Amino acid sequence: MQRQADQKSLQYIEILILAFSWLVIFLSPLIFQNELEHINWNQVLGNWRKLLPFVLLSLFNHFLLVPLLFFRKYKKWYFAGAVATLVLFVFILNWIPKQTPQAGEHPFPREFQHRPPPRERPLPPIHEREARDMPQGRQQPPPMQTPGALPPYLNSLLIAIMILGFDTGLRTVFRWTKSEQEREILTKEKVKSELAFLRNQISPHFFMNTLNNIHALIDFDKEEAKESVIKLSGLMRYLLYESEGEKILLKKEIEFLKNYIELMKLRFTDQVEVRLDLPDSLPDKQIPPLLFTSFLENAFKHGVSYDNPSFIHIAISNAPGKLFLRIHNSKHKTPKKDTASGIGMENTKKRLDLIFKGDYTLDITDKRDTFEINLSIPV
Asked: Angle at the Cα of 105 (from 103 to 107), degrees rounded to 5?
């Protein structure tokens, strides 16, 4: 529904711009009148009659030539059709006035015309009589022509080309805007589906292992087992309900990370050093949900070995308008490549690009024995 509403609004804006452009053109004979109190309406109506064929040409190009040929990848046929339309338009525009009677000219043949009775003709002006009485060898010079004046057909052709160019450019710009809008919507939908995949990716194995660890704790430390159940419940509530929106409070995201880390520590021995450093106070800001989860999950999957000492150091800090995440962990060879973790990392990078539009920094340092990420986002 939102996509259809956006497309409709673009169509309305395009039509409004086209109508406004022609309104300005039609009002220009009135705007440039020297005296608005004494408007020569005959001249204005004459200019409007001259503009009307160009409006029809613009509408024909806007609603027929461009959508049927240009946008359907028949660009050669479009240009051929545009040239043919221009030639036909200029021919009709300059041929019809010559075939129609001018003002004061009788539309019927001379033999059917009513001849008025003869009357005395006034004497011609002096300069005309002098020119008539002038000797045959001497003739008046031809009338002066305005230098640089274009023939009427060439003037009409240039105006028609400009109108077609403006109209085609306008339609192309709105077509490109519509395509970009659809591409952004599709990208958001894809990221949402990948985020849903990320939620499902966290849930099965993590919850199964956590429940097994809690079951083992019941016989040794019932209080810790109860605390772990509470943390697991909060984790599930966050994944199922609170992370559905586009933004979540930073405090809730940090609380989710703390519960996640505490539950993961149940699986490991003292040989795995897990450390979380948090600032004393967190800003009352919102960030996209599960933005740090893939980096954290990657650290636990590839930074922990049951045979060798391992460490995972997580640090979150903030500055005015900025939030920083640093994860530094040991790196051990895994028997099989984890494609799900790779998908989660790629998904996070896509989300960062889509949400922050380049207004973030992500530095990844991948060494032989250690792995480190440093992320900075605006808040």
From this structure: 115
Total structural domains in the chain?
2
Is 164 within a domain? no
Identify the pLDDT of residue 109: 46
Task: Clarify whether residues 97 and 194 are in a common domain.
Answer: no
Q: What angle do CA 39, 40, 45 make, to 5 degrees?
A: 115
Name the domain boundary from 84, 101, 118: 101
Answer yes or no: are the C-beta atoms of 259 and 253 closer than 8 Å: no
At residue 205, the 3 state secondary structure works out as helix
The alpha carbon of residue 358 and the mean position of all alpha carbons in its chain are separated, in whole angstroms, by: 16
- Rounded CA separation 376/219 (Å): 43
Bridge partners (DSSP) of residue 248 are 287
Within 10 A of 255 (CB to CB), how many other CB atoms are there? 15
Number of Cβ atoms within 10 Å of the Cβ of 179: 10
Domain range for 254 is 189-378
* More confident call, 296 vs 98: 296
At residue 223 the predicted structure's pLDDT band, cuts being 50, 70 and 90, is confident
β-pairing, 310-319 with 272-277? parallel
Burial class (CB in 10 A: 0-12, 13-18, 19+), 292: buried
The encoded tokens of residue 195 equal 């985020």
pLDDT band at 113 (very low <50, low <70, confident <90, very high): very low
Same domain? 90 vs 239: no
Best-predicted range by mean pLDDT among 39-53, 229-243, 271-285?
271-285
Neighbours of 146 (CB within 10 A): 5
- Residue for token digits 């966290």? 202
Query: Can you give the pTM of this predicted structure?
Result: 0.52
Average confidence score pLDDT of the chain: 77
Give the separation between CA 289 and CA 195, rounded to whole angstroms: 9
The answer on pLDDT for 97 being more than 70 is: no
| Whether the Cβ atoms of residue 157 and residue 90 lie closer than 8 Å to each other | yes
Cβ proximity of 268 and 304 under 8 Å:
yes
Question: Which residue has better confidence, 250 or 337?
Answer: 250
Q: 1 is written with which tokens?
A: 């529904």
